[in-house]
Amino acid sequence: MIELPASSTGHAAPLTHVALRGDGLRLATCSYDGTTLVWDTSDPSNPLTLARLRHRRLVNAAAWNPAVASLLATASADKTVAVWRVSDDGSTDLVNVLARHTDDINSIAWLPDGERLICVSEDGRATMWDALTGAFLTEVGSHEAHCMMVSVSVRGTVATVGEDGMVAVTELAGPGAPGARFVRRYASSIEGCAWSRSGEVLAVARDDGAVDLLTAGLELVRTVEVSSSAARTVDWADDDSCFVVGAYDGSLHFFDRGGQRLHRVDDARVWPRSVSAARGLVAAGSFWGGPHILDLASGTEIAAPARPTHGPNALAVRGDQLLVGCDSGAVMAIGLDDDAFEVLQVADSPILSLAVRDGALYAGTYSGHLVAFDGARKVSGQLGAPLPSLCLDGELLVAGTYNGEFIAVDPDTLAVVDRWEAHGGSVKSLAALPDGGFLSAATDRTVAIGSFRDRRVLWEHGNLVNAVAGLGGSVAASASRDHTVKVGRLDPSDGTVRQTQTLLGPDESVKCVGLLGSAQSPVVLAGSYDFGLYAWEVDWRDNAGTLASGRVVAEFGQGLSCMLRLDDDRMAAAGWDGRVVVVERGGPGRTRVVRSLRLQELLASHESARLDGEMVIA
User: Fold this and answer.
1) Of 237, 209, 238, 236, which is closest to residue 224 (Cα–Cα)?
2) Sheet holding 532-537: strands in order across?
């Protein structure tokens, strides 16, 4: 069960999804904190929280019933879909829970009859259920990779999109049977789609930053160029006169039906993973604790969240400080050997990656900017996409982007020196090698090694790779959404792989990885979305033994997000519950947590001390 400090003003973590009810009077917001909040938006300038609905894991989506206004379905990474009755006074009843799916539920949509529900999952399947009885009806279709979004038209036509680049449209022949099916394929992932209100046009959000408008038979009407970064989500006005797109450049883009740009809204707080339109309003997700509500006609903000969230995404060391980069754009500086603590407001956008050089701190942000901070702040131009990874390679700072690029930057001027598309997917992690060059891990499933332009694939996972770590140029380890960690011995002279082992433990995606000890006897640490921090003592002589090795060192209240080697024997790890721990390697079976801190408590003490100081000064 997710355990995050409750927030009285909204969510305790970023918003994953927003869903306006058709009348615009209610808004459901879903979050990494494991809850769905229902807001009264009858006065959109002052949204009020009516109800809080809980799941065991993060909530990915919500959908209002088109026939019964009080019914709301929610879909979670706990592999369930729940159907709730939410009364006007905020009281709630759990009507039903659909049988547990085989993987996380990414998206849901009601059919027009208000009785059947389509669920799409990371297992690639699109399934149809009788939502009120819980009966499974049929499989509507399947994808070769994760199915990311479903939209159902007013005519009952089902559209699904997935990471396999496939768009599928299925016409239902009867109450429980799929009929005619149309398929269109793209070269890269498709994560968002939405039928126009008339059901005549399907908008598809493409990973290359464009939106295609398609007929019900998937013939192209027009392509609308939106952004240099991936288009993630899209929704239509009630009269189909315009649509709004959320893109991974951190912006909301408004277009008329003919593809002419109307407005662009840039706000570092907005997480445009989800948008929803109804009755002249647009709701958008946020890295802060509540929704953004805008006027659809003008793009003007009507309401915004009150407080930031501080989920940690990146770690670095500067002198005697452990630096923690957060969703709020702040860096928390924690004394490695004492109780020192300070808050550095480094960026306006969430910090996804950190690096340190000669006392200067560098941060890669979701907005696609690189920030240099050494008391003063210097900001690069927009580099085209979010920057989830950074490392230093000789005299250059290398950033990895959501677009699969490496960007080499001069650390002094932040000028771009070189850039190229090194991977076929987002570069999630970089790790510098001691003698130059670096390791890289990406959503194209590969782990690679080499210099900036001279790369070689070390190995491939069965799904995207979230993180990579090195140990003295002789060992590398990687963490993947395929629920495994791979560790390999490398030849230091040329980086070729001598031997690999696959480590098992987590039952969910593995998010971060690190290495301690020596090349001969390394200890692998990894953090997972199942809230566990795992350790494996690698024995290169016993490959088969890895199937039964590994143990849980610590459990968090949310998934782990990042990890950093401090020295040969110590590792820092952070989770989205705001907990930061230091783990120390001992003898066999003795790797353990030796220090544990909570960012919320440190922040509260810091804020209290700051206010006391201001009162004394006054």
Assistant:
1) 209
2) 510-517, 522-528, 532-537, 551-555
- Distance, in Å, from the CA atom of 87 to the CA atom of 71, rounded to the nearest integer, reads 9
Which is it for the CA torsion 145, 150, 152, 156, positive or negative? positive
What is the predicted pLDDT for the residue at 156? 95
| Domains of the chain and CATH, by start | 15-303 (2.130.10.10), 310-421 (2.40.128.630)
User: Which is more confident, 136 or 9?
Assistant: 136
**Two tokens, residue 386:** 């979010």
Residues 87, 90, 94, 98, CA torsion sign: positive
| Residue in the block written with tokens 């039964």 | 548
Residues 6+ apart with CB under 8 A from 197: 154, 236, 237, 238, 239, 240
- Cα 134 from Cα 3, distance rounded (Å): 28
Q: pTM for this one?
A: 0.95
Write the DSSP string, 56-111.
SS-EEEEEE-SS-TTEEEEEETTS-EEEEEE-TTS-EEEEEEPPPPSS-EEEEEE-
Q: State the CB neighbour count (10 A cutoff) for residue 485.
A: 28
Measured between alpha carbons, how far is residue 99 from residues 36, 57, 86, 446, 611 in Å?
20, 16, 21, 34, 50
Tokens coding 86 = 């939410």
pLDDT tens figures, 392-410: 999 999 999 999 999 999 9
